[in-house]
Amino acid sequence: MSRSSGPIACMTLDLEEDWCIPGDESPNPTFDHVDDYIALIEQLDVPISVFVVGVTIENYPGIVERLRWELDAEFHLHSYQHDMTKSYEFETEIQRGVAAFESHFGEPPRGYRAPQGNIVQGEWAELERAGFEFSSSVFPSYRPGVYNNIRAPLTPYVPTEVDRLLEIPFAAVPGLRIPISQNYLKLLGRPYLSLLKHVPLPTPLVYDSHLQDFWRTEFHDHLPQPKRTLMTRNMDRSVDILTEFVSTLRRNGYTFEKVSDLYEPVAYAWT
Q1: For the purposes of burial, counting CB atoms within 10 Å of the CB of 173, is it exposed (0-12), middle (13-18) or buried (19 or more)?
Q2: What is the mean pLDDT of residues 135-142?
Q3: Residues 262 and 13: beta-carbon distance below 8 Å
Q4: 101 phi and psi, to 5 degrees?
Q5: E strand intervals along the chain
Q6: Tens digits of per-residue pLDDT, 8-29?
Q7: Predicted model pTM
Q8: Deepest of 145, 197, 205, 234, by most Cβ within 10 A of its Cβ?
């Protein structure tokens, strides 16, 4: 899919403020670690693609600008309000998100990511009508009560309900279908990290992360059990886990690109 002849990895960040207590208007203490995140990405020397919530753009424009200019990050939309209940009208949610994005960046978003990776039939068609070029929403895996995408492709594809919009799925281990993301590497720890050194990995490999995957704050203590234990497992070595995984990818010949770079050759082939 990409111009590179070798395997490709894309490191992505979901930038959101309400991951812990929906509706709570308190400042998100996770954003206090933006300096740490910038330093981490600079040390890893990888390009970054940020999927940002519309409300977060409105409430934290300074954070968005720091990531944009200090990391040369590209930005795409991660819904308007990050409502994981799907109790909203999707067309209105997208319109509000696009408006917030355009107001800040001066141009519409090219890509979209659904909260929790929970995208359903009909939503790709609405994204295409709204002018999006690609989505990066599908975990080709299984999460009880959220999605069952065991049969979904592991590589980019055009969903049957659209003409040209490209779905660029998250990475998962072929066969096992375990997602390859910071949350899963942190949860499963060293055994999983060791497994990833010895199994075939997908290309492109779209890697998902959040600020709250790396640094613990008082927000974590508000989580109910067992979610609190799951979210904080191996938190003290989360940065080291990412560093080690990036090194593994480089040893396996991966080069790093932004998510939009995966779309460009497809768009060129369609012209």
Answers
A1: buried
A2: 96
A3: no
A4: -65, -50
A5: 8-15, 48-52, 74-77, 111-112, 134-135, 142-143, 147-148, 166-167, 205-207, 255-256
A6: 999 999 999 866 555 556 677 8
A7: 0.94
A8: 205
